[in-house]
Design brief:
Elements (H helix, E strand, L loop, with lengths): L33 H14 L11 E2 L2 E2 L5 H27 L9 H4 L5 H13 L1 H4 L2 E9 L2 H8 L1 H18 L5 E3 L5 E8 L3 H15 L3 E3 L2 E3 L3 E6 L7 H10 L2 E2 L2
Antiparallel strand pairs: 1-2, 3-5, 3-8, 4-5, 6-7, 8-9
Helix pairs in contact: 6-7, 7-8
Protein name: GGDEF domain-containing protein
InterPro entries: Nucleotide_cyclase, Rev_trsase/Diguanyl_cyclase
Organism: Roseospira visakhapatnamensis
Length: about 250
């Protein structure tokens, strides 16, 4: 039976030990040969724990089983869910990157002013009102379903929607108009306003038709869900207040 032992017998304590007596026999309190000791060691090995057994208790992500309270399990579940969501978004972004060029770097690849430049342009236009007779009307555009697209198709698809909206506005921008981004899924156009409300809305709707065109995404077509708001500022109005008023007035144009 000693041949069945896969390795050397473990140094486990036994109830007896080999001792050689004066008559040449071994054992204490009886006569036992070497093969008897081997059989006993094999029996103890089979009864004892496997030498390949894991000594530590079961753990999940390094947390011992004894510490896995319901609250800890919920927290770990939420954490792993968030990791899976981020991993999925990264995979989608990598796959979609082939059809876009750094869509997150909006300032470089889209002719959009930053927030500070847009505020400066607003102040300059408003200060020149007496000379030009045209107030810089604020037209606010927002991709209303950005978050929905992000949840359904991933971050790359949502950015593609914004990219298409802002690119359409940039293509249609006149020399007398300024286009900028304030953050999020919005863009702002400063349009000279000479007091003709109908003319202002005709221009705003023309921009909305271009900016709100559905966006091809892989084998699907994603709508923009465009929202548009128009605000005519007063003399001395601050840029932040004017932009906020336009955003507040934003609604879906049918």
């Amino acid at each position: 039976m000693a041949d069945d032992i896969p390795g050397p017998a473990p140094p486990m304590a036994v109830d007896w030990r080999q001792e050689r007596s004066s008559d040449g026999h071994t054992g204490r309190g009886g006569r036992h040969a070497a093969q008897d000791h081997a059989r006993a060691a094999g029996a103890y090995e089979r009864l004892g724990p496997s030498p390949h057994a894991i000594a530590d208790a079961l753990s999940v992500q390094g947390v011992p089983e004894a510490d896995l309270t319901p609250a800890v399990r919920r927290a770990m579940g939420q954490l792993m869910g968030e990791v899976d969501r981020l991993r999925q978004e990264l995979d989608v972004a990598r796959e979609g990157a082939g059809g876009m060029v750094d869509v997150r770097d909006r300032a470089e690849h889209l002719p959009l002013m930053g927030a500070r430049s847009l505020e400066r342009a607003f102040r300059l236009r408003l200060a020149a009102e007496a000379d030009s007779g045209a107030v810089p009307a604020v037209v606010f555009f927002y991709a209303g379903n950005y978050e929905t697209v992000r949840e359904r198709h991933g971050l790359a698809a949502a950015e593609a929607v914004y990219h298409a909206m802002a690119s359409a506005m940039a293509r249609c921008r006149a020399d007398t108009e300024d286009l900028g981004a304030l953050g999020g899924a919005s863009a702002v156009m400063l349009i000279p306003f000479d007091g003709q409300v109908d003319r202002l809305w005709v221009r705003a709707r023309a921009l909305a038709r271009e900016a709100g065109a559905p966006v091809p995404w892989r084998s699907d077509t994603v709508p923009v869900g465009l929202l548009i708001g128009v605000h005519v500022p007063r003399r001395g109005e601050r840029p932040g207040d004017a932009f906020w008023q336009a955003e507040r007035a934003a609604r879906r144009i049918v």
